[in-house]
């Protein structure tokens, strides 16, 4: 499934930041750029803000109740001070940003990810989640065709399914 740029790439950046865990400014910048955001620098001060922000993003992915999830995203939007801004940078045609190109790195990340989660939540809230494998805290944006993803990876899904199979087999032989 394809989302608009904010619901797609921005939501993926949000998930990547949550899954990255503690990281240096350089590592966070690498993660942000690898998942589609064209940020060129991130100071140590900004990195600390992004790490704190990632913890709040994690709450959104982990929340199962749609109303509470919407409330969490609304708080992110308010705290990010998101507002539409038409940007024309790096030779790209005009496109929508939720923070000025001149804003600090952390503010741009906050606005981008809050906007992305808001779009995703409005388009299809079931497309964001946390791995259903016990003990796995990886979050994801579900871009599968049928939108029924429950696990972060094939490895986690297989682990759960094999354990369930073994449990059924043991109960049949008992």
Describe this structure in words.
By secondary structure, this protein is mostly helical. It has a single domain (6-173), classed as Jann2411-like fold. The protein is built from six helices and four strands, in the order ααααββαββα. The strands form two sheets. Strands 1-2 form a two-stranded antiparallel ribbon. The chain has a two-stranded antiparallel sheet with strand order 3-4. Helix 1 (6-20) packs across helix 3 (44-62) and helix 3 packs antiparallel against helix 4 (66-80). The radius of gyration is 18 Å and the shape is elongated. The mean pLDDT is 89.
CATH class: Mainly Alpha
- What order do the SSEs take from the amino end to the carboxyl end, as H and E? HHHHEEHEEH
> Could you tell me how far the N terminus lies from the C terminus, measured between alpha carbons in angstroms?
44 Å
User: By helix and strand content, what is the structural category?
Assistant: mainly alpha
- As for the number of domains, it is 1
What is the CATH H-level superfamily?
Answer: Jann2411-like domain
Q: Please identify, by name, the CATH architecture.
A: Orthogonal Bundle
- Please state the CA-atom Rg, rounded to the nearest Å: 18 Å
Domain Zinc finger CGNR: 127-168
Protein name: CGNR zinc finger domain-containing protein
Organism: Amycolatopsis alkalitolerans
InterPro entries: ABATE, ABATE_dom_sf, Znf_CGNR
């Amino acid at each position: 499934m394809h989302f608009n740029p904010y619901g797609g790439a921005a939501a993926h950046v949000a998930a990547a930041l949550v899954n990255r865990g503690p990281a240096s400014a350089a590592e966070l910048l690498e993660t942000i750029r690898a998942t589609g955001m064209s940020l060129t620098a991130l100071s140590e001060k900004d990195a600390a803000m992004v790490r704190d922000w990632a913890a709040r993003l994690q709450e959104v992915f982990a929340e199962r109740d749609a109303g509470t999830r919407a409330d969490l995203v609304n708080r992110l939007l308010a705290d990010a001070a998101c507002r539409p801004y038409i940007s024309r940078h790096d030779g790209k045609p005009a496109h929508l940003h939720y923070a000025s190109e001149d804003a600090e790195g952390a503010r741009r990340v906050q606005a981008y990810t809050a906007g992305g989660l808001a779009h995703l939540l409005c388009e299809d809230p079931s497309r964001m989640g946390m791995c259903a494998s016990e003990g796995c805290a990886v979050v994801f944006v579900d871009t599968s065709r049928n939108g029924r993803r429950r696990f972060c990876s094939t490895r986690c899904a297989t682990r759960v399914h094999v354990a369930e199979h073994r449990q059924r087999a043991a109960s049949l032989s008992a």
